[in-house]
Write a structure and sequence with these properties.
By secondary structure, the protein is α+β, with helices and mostly antiparallel strands.
Length: 228
Amino acid sequence: MTKTINTILLSALMAIAAGCTGSNGDGQQEQAAYEGIDTVPMLITQIKKCSRLYTTEMKVHKIVTHDDVVKLQGKLLKQNIDIRLPMGERKVAIPIDATLKAYIDFSDFSERNIERTADGKITILLPDPKVELTSSKVNQQEIRSFVGIVRSRFSDEELTRYEQQGREAIIQSIPRLGITDMAKASAAHALVPMVRQMGYREEDITVAYRKDFKSFDISKIIEVGSGK
């Protein structure tokens, strides 16, 4: 049986809005130039410059534990027996440090992602956030194990299998970690200044995601990669 213990360290990365907007500090001049021009194509071009906008990073520390025992099972004098053999236990605890990164992919961003109203309000519909397991590492020096006298040591194959189970457990826990919500907030902070440069007031700007995005969609937005 494998048990897991999670300790989560969260850190929201500062989105580099300037890198997407190409701002040179002349925001007022740019805004004046945009007046009277259909800004949607220009806005799409600016947003697509972001390409893959990494917005949030999360560090996850997980300890994977496994234990098993040798039992003597059967019947003796018509009685069922189930006895744990003395010194027949094996236990191991494997610490795993992993890094998750959330990003928005703007490669397919188009006019379908922008809604405007007659009163000057604008809504940016962002693509679903993606989550990538960019790295995972086992702290070999902190692996702890106990092996009873009548048992053999854990093999490299067994340890590798438990480590993989730990990485899979981290991926399965993503919906509970809230990283996609942080990605949404960070993307909004990056894009609102960009839209303001097009002449829109901040109170008229809305950054939104599709309404039917649910936590169970997480399996569709995870990119595991090598995880190394």
